[in-house]
Amino acid sequence: MSVLWTSDDAVAATGGRATRAFEVNGVSIDTRTIQPGDLFVALQAARDGHDFVAQALEKGAGAALVSRVPDGVGDDAPLLIVDDVLGALERLGAAARARVRGKVVAVTGSVGKTSTKEMLRAMLAPQGATHAAEASYNNHWGVPLTLARMPADTDFAVIEIGMNHPGEIGPLARLARPDVAMITTIAPAHLAAFDDISGIAREKSAIFEGLVDGGAAVFHGDLETTPILADAWNGTALSFGEGDANSVRVDDIRLLDGDATARVTVDGAAYPVRLSTSGRHFLTNAAGCLAVAQLLGVDMTRAAADLSRWDPPSGRGARGTVQLPLGGTLDLIDDAFNANPTSMSAALEVLAAARPEGSGRRVAILGDMLELGEDERAIHAGLAALPWFATIDVVHTVGPLMSGLHNALAPKTAGVHVETAEEMRSMLGTLVVSGDIVLVKGSKGSKVSVLVDAIRQLGQPLPDKKL
Asked: What range(s) does the Mur ligase C-terminal domain occupy (predicted)?
């Protein structure tokens, strides 16, 4: 494995002091997943990372980034001692960005950041050495960590940038210094921290503040807040969406049972796109990815074809089949990682388009959408107006906010309502049956992911469906 950082390079980047020479080939903040040869970063979080340095070194860490010599660590230990660990990690990330001659793409948005980041990874990897964030490493430590892990010979990097409060995106974007910055969409997420959705749009558009000279912006062109995004950048920009005015247009959308197809037109050329999962929102973001590809100058025909290599990760719309112990199967759509009104509508549209076998039903298990501000109860009740409920057979709801939707649904559609996911866990054997297609959707804090696990435990999960 090639060397990622030598002690001399790390000292020059961070301004720290090395206790001895070292070479590392990775960067880690977690002793549970650390690999031999990693640089262990002793961040201060719920626990002080200095308490785990000895363990990291015992597991083969090549060195540790610390602000003091931890207890239990010998005088001969390979340490990089700095004034502040997080600040040093940021400087390490900045140095990694400075030495890369490839192209960097940054992605943000209220919905779809991680799935779009993974689409871009799948699309770009066949055309060059591609580096992308793990999981949802998109915050004040996740972005510099992703950058610090970036090999010097990277051709394409994809950096995910998120936020919970105003003022978070701009500094991270300036650290990443993207060549192309993409905003997937603007939706009422984290409204508790903003006055209105316009405030969210302005915060998301701060990603353009980090663009390098000659950089380009990509944003959703069909939104009420699109003018805010367009006004935030005066340079090269491409909009994407279904509207005719978009630079990159997606049409002929077909949501199938388990996959989805569309046509994306870029600079007068039409490219067929097929995704291995269903969802209008996924196809729209695929169009955004092709806008990025156009700006990067890669082979567009190959990029469009390689989007089919993308699969949604667990908790973000992945679909699988569960073999039930008494015979038969059910299909499970796991979308339990996050939720807001926009993503909830998109997920329900996918369920409505699904085709159960035999006497199977379309079943939704919906948990609370969190951080929506003072109108949160009205927003939950308002979901009942979505047209997809006309096709969905039964909707079970979890959480105090989802009681509003439960009460607003037609009696034939409203299923069981409980206050917590744990209460519903023991009921699942009677709430879902063979032949059903079951969507589980909710904010992470609603803990409906435990229901995904419980459904899988009803029987034996089979490989995810591929068409």
From this structure: 330-443
Q: Is residue 93 one of the residues assigned to a domain?
A: no
- What is the average pLDDT value for the chain, to the nearest integer? 93
Quote the number of domains for the chain: 3
Mean pLDDT of 79-91: 97
Indicate which CATH number applies to the domain containing 18.
3.40.1390.10
Residues 353 and 376 in one domain: yes
The answer to whether residues 283 and 172 belong to one domain is yes
List pLDDT tens digits, range 430-450.
Answer: 999 999 999 999 999 999 999
Q: Which contiguous run of DSSP H or E holds residue 459? A: none
Question: Residue 451's domain is classified under what CATH number?
Answer: 3.90.190.20
Tokens 């950082």 correspond to what residue? 5
Last residue of a domain, one of 54, 85, 116: 85
Asked whether residue 366 falls in the same domain as residue 431, the answer is yes
Q: Which residues carry a binding-site annotation for ATP?
A: 109-115
Q: How far apart (Å, rounded) are the C-alpha atoms in residues 440 and 355?
A: 17
Phi, psi of 82 (to 5 degrees): -130, 170
Burial bucket for residue 383 (CB in 10 Å: 0-12, 13-18, 19+): buried
Binding site feature residues = 109-115
In which domain, by residue range, is 373 found?
Answer: 318-462
Cβ contact 41:89 at 8 Å? yes
11: helix, strand or coil: helix
Q: Are residues 170 and 281 in the same domain?
A: yes
- At 108, the pLDDT band (50, 70, 90 cuts) reads very high
Could you read off the pLDDT of 218-267 as tens digits, one per residue? 999 999 999 999 999 999 999 999 999 999 999 999 988 778 999 999 99
- The pLDDT of residue 186: 93
Contact 115, 285 (CB under 8 A): yes
Question: What average pLDDT score do residues 14-41 get?
Answer: 97
